[in-house]
């Protein structure tokens, strides 16, 4: 289980990703707010993170890193107009988390073949499992 510092770091990272295009859209805010609730982060702390990001904390658990990457993919796909800048940023987040370059690329390539570009969790896990072994 991840601790509070890691949870704040995850959420801060997602907020930074949503802010790539300068402001957080309403749909992104709602999604992030839901993630905050899931992580048991208060609304006050969530709103504070929007203005005051915390330092990135590397997750030890490979499975937690995969879950976080999936959250970032979902967040990116809320916006129907995915820019090259967002793809590069997502790829770099994945690499920084220690995920394999090949797996990240496979997820981004496969994304196009799914409705709404949302890769189902079981596909995502299988992709990373193959590369992890």
UniProtKB/TrEMBL annotation:
<dbReference type="InterPro" id="IPR029024">
    <property type="entry name" value="TerB-like"/>
</dbReference>
<protein>
    <recommendedName>
        <fullName>Tellurite resistance protein TerB</fullName>
    </recommendedName>
</protein>
């Amino acid at each position: 289980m991840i601790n509070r510092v890691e949870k704040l770091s995850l959420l801060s990272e997602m907020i930074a990703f949503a802010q790539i295009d300068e402001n957080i859209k309403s749909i992104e805010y709602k999604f992030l707010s839901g993630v905050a609730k899931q992580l048991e982060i208060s609304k006050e702390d969530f709103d504070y993170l929007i203005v005051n990001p915390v330092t990135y904390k590397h997750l030890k658990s490979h499975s937690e890193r995969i879950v976080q990457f999936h959250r970032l993919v979902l967040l990116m796909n809320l916006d129907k107009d995915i820019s090259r800048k967002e793809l590069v940023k997502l790829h770099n987040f994945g690499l920084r988390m220690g995920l394999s370059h090949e797996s990240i690329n496979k997820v981004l390539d496969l994304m196009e073949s799914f409705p709404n570009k949302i890769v189902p969790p079981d596909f995502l896990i299988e992709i990373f499992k193959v590369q992890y072994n």
